[in-house]
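FORM 12-B: Structure-to-Sequence Request
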């Protein structure tokens, strides 16, 4: 079964064709990073306009390269939530038009579920149930993947997402958007114990939730201290310290949740799952605790449509369909989708 997939929830326009949920036939991503870099973050109006410009040529390129006709496909999957509503609308409306013109069924896909499905390409033996840490620019969730289309969120951020915190501190350290990527590289050259940062939610033993705003404020204060004294910022040490604190929060809660809930299979997904320290630390934890641990390929960590095609396949099998009433939604809980 061939699923045609569209993703446009933030600043990447992406199109893919996926076979049987696990095999990628073709995909393309048109990144808008250069359009947003000058503003230091995503400008929603610019993102929508760029999606409109990019989507049609991208769809034609993916289909033409495969020498396929739309009649060779079985369904159209599209990310409808969560994300920037003006961005999502471009993908949703394009998919609705395509479904109307071709008669192919339309399958709505939740973006976080799609991130989890990004794991299925390079890990053919990975099957639910497993525990997944989904960390991106917009989300930080610990999710019980009970089945391909059944999920339970047991931990979430109470304020910033991990990627958002990385990007904001990265910006203050002078890195281009998205700062998380550069911060990760700089951190490799620094001493992670150079500065003392607070441990968020340390008195709450019964939660798997995260909080990164206190860490962010503490970092801002350290950075401002250097600026007030007109001293140059020790970029590498600051990056290493912040990265270690964020990764400690993610790893500690995730491993505690896995042990409490008796999961033996663990996985990570989302843009921040590309973080080199997070990958190393979870690999070490998996060795020590005998977990089976899965990661997406780096190219599938950030937003793409392959993952939408993978999840779209499982949603299609479960009977999920959208009508022409499908709307883009900025926020839909994973369990309410
Ligand atoms: O999944 P994604 O592409 O978009 C959302 O759904 O939000 O994630 C983008 C986020 C950005 O915040 C970016 O800084 C972060 O992923 N990111 C990283 C790394 N690579 C991307 N954060 C830390 N370390 C990285 N290596
Ligand atoms: Zn994403």
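FORM 12-B RESPONSE
SEQUENCE OUT:
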């Amino acid at each position: 079964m061939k699923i045609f997939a569209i993703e446009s929830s933030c600043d990447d326009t992406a199109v893919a064709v996926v076979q049987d949920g696990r095999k990628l036939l073709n995909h393309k991503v048109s990144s808008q990073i250069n359009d947003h870099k000058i503003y230091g973050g995503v400008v929603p109006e610019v993102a929508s306009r760029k999606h409109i410009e990019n989507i049609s040529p991208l769809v034609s390129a993916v289909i033409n390269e495969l020498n396929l006709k739309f009649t060779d496909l079985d369904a159209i999957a599209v990310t409808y939530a969560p994300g920037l509503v003006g961005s999502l609308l471009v993908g949703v409306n394009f998919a609705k038009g395509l479904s109307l013109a071709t008669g192919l069924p339309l399958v709505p896909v939740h973006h976080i579920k799609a991130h989890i499905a990004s794991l299925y390409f390079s890990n053919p033996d990975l099957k639910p149930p497993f525990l997944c840490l989904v960390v991106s620019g917009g989300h930080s969730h610990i999710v019980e993947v009970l089945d391909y289309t059944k999920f339970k969120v047991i931990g979430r951020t109470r304020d910033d997402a991990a990627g958002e915190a990385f990007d904001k501190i990265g910006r203050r350290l002078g890195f281009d958007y998205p700062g998380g990527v550069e911060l990760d590289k700089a951190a490799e050259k620094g001493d992670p114990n150079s500065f003392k940062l607070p441990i968020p939610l340390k008195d709450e033993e019964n939660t798997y939730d995260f909080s990164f705003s206190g860490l962010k404020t503490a970092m801002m204060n350290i950075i401002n201290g250097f600026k007030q004294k007109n001293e140059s910022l020790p970029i590498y040490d600051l990056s290493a310290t912040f990265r270690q604190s964020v990764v400690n929060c993610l790893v500690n809660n995730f491993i505690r949740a896995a042990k409490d809930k008796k999961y033996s299979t663990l996985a990570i997904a989302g843009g921040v799952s590309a973080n080199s320290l997070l990958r190393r630390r979870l690999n070490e934890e998996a060795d020590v605790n005998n977990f089976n641990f899965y990661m997406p390929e780096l190219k599938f960590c950030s937003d793409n449509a392959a993952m939408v095609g993978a999840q779209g396949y499982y949603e299609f099998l479960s009977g999920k369909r959208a009508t022409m009433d499908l709307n883009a939604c900025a926020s839909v809980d994973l369990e309410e989708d």
